[in-house]
Amino acid sequence: MSLTIDNGRAMDSADVRMPAPLNLWHDDRPLPPWVQELARDFDVDDLVEVIIGRCLSIAFPNQAHDDEFRGYLTASTSANARCLRSVIAGEIALEDVHLEAVLSFAKVQAQLRIPQKSMQRSYRISFFTMWEAWSNHLRKAITDRDIDRDEAFLAQQLLTQTILGYQDFVASQVAETYTHDYEALNRSRGHMRRSLVRDILRDESGVLSSSDAAILSYDLTSRHIAVLLPTVAEGAATQLAVGMRAAVSCQHSLVYPLTLSSSVVWLGRIGEWKRQVLDALDSVLIEAGVPAAVGGAHAGIDGFRTTLTEAMDAERIRAAWDRPGAPSVVHHGDVGLEILLMRDPVQARQFVERELGPLARDTVEAQRLRETLEASFRFGSHVAAAEHLQLHEHTVRNRLHKAEELLGHTLNERRTELQVAARLIRLLANIEQTPVTPPS
To answer: Which parts of the chain span the membrane according to its record (predicted)?
Structure first.
């Protein structure tokens, strides 16, 4: 819905041809001057927030957590709402409203392969919400000014006519732009490849024709790992994939956008994914300064799907990890315990509170004792834990003694449970706030 008013510039052949506004009504009287004046007091910003909330929850639920998509939607909706206000205020005639050659939001939706019915629904939601807000604004003015009934009826009729005429004028051009871009993308090899990947992720048959296999250009019989890059768009991920392939000497790679700003890279090898190979992969990602979650190695088309699922599970843990020095690259196999136990955050919290008792409190002292407890379990000795925490050995001993007093039993009595609880408590605050968008 992104609009700009074209102040008389010559439109070249690449521009979208502007149809004349459709005259659905025979009443061509202008809005009364007092209605045009009302437009200057109309709060567009509040209206935009309502539209965004409705569109994301109803028309675009899969993009609700995509900040970049929300940014496009907000910018487009804001421009559209402000342009409509200018038309109602009489500052610009409907036939003088011009859209840019490429309507940015329609283009984004085409790129994301959002169904046209979702796009059209968002426009119906948007313009209904606009009509609803403008009607309420007009009704309040009618009451406050004690407008004559016939005049009020005419004002409501002409306002509705203006909004619906504007809706038809805009929506028809948006649909034309979306269809043009969607069809062009369908003809491109890259988007054909993305469509194939989407079908593979959804379809359990696992059968590709020879022509589809040639378009995909990736061997699905390999042993795959999926590298989820939550902050890297498709173009940058394609460049990064070159370095990853070189580092791990893999035969195949495939890049797929999850959202406008996140991607997954599958890497395929004939041989095993040994630890030293994965270490080389980590080095590339760390040097590039990008966070990543890596699925386990799995073979075949089922493995192609499984490793992505594992990478998405690992990303939820990586994103929720807030401890200092937390790794930027997380492998599914290294956080399997957290993934398993965090599938039910409510029960995980109950387990943590039951095992840690007073040590689960959100206080500086409790956090300090948990860190000492975890270091002691991890390194196996007071000396190593003290060196890691940069504390005196006696300080570590005192803290562990204090932890035992608060727990009411020795640390060795429930060593495994305490160690697990200390790992989980770091995730509970953030795990529900870090959604990972599945491929749609």
So the answer is: none
